[in-house]
Amino acid sequence: MQANRVIRKFIPLLAALAVAPAFADDANMLEEARSVSSAIPPKLLSVLDEEIKKSGPEGAIGVCREKAPAMAKAASEKSGWAIRRVSLKNRNPKAVPDAWEEAVLKEFDKRAAAGEKPTGLEKGEVVMDGDKKMYRYMKALPTQDLCLGCHGTSDRISPAVQAKLKELYPADQAVGYHAAEIRGAITLKKPL
Ligand code: HEC
Q: What does pTM read for this prediction?
């Protein structure tokens, strides 16, 4: 009887100990994904801003076309996280979200419509990829005024930029945005 009671008392504790490391792991992965992903957009933004001031949006297309993927690649190599950008209305034909990313992007749109600030939208989750356990993380990339010269409504995009975009991305869907809308997201994954 006595022993039983003691065991019963300890069961929740044992259960908590068994679960705790998993929670700690997830929390660590979330922290890591946050810090790896948060380094890229501000850097990209300052390079974009500088280039637009120097040579206009048509001259800055290369920043989004080459610098952004290069920065993601460098951060991937340094951190071990696979990093890329995706969108429900993609410009780069490869920026199509997979099923998990598509669901998260739709969830971000819903959360923004319900009043959450687009800049704070993020999601981290442990997801099975075949038989591999992955930690996956996404953070929304909202538009600001600066983005609209290349992603805005047609009155905001100069004829020169429109012509260049048409030439480089004949199937471009990434236009028609206003400020503070979700343009897409940065997406990260790493095996657990
Ligand atoms: C100078 C033009 C320009 C500006 C300004 C610009 N972009 Fe882009 N953006 C592009 C181009 C070009 C691509 C396609 C890049 C590629 O080929 O990978 C792109 C791609 C993207 C993608 C990847 C998904 C996709 O649709 O291919 C995201 C997300 C994105 N831009 C967000 C933004 C945000 C947010 C801003 C403002 C902070 C911004 N962009 C400003 C030109 C621009």
A: 0.88
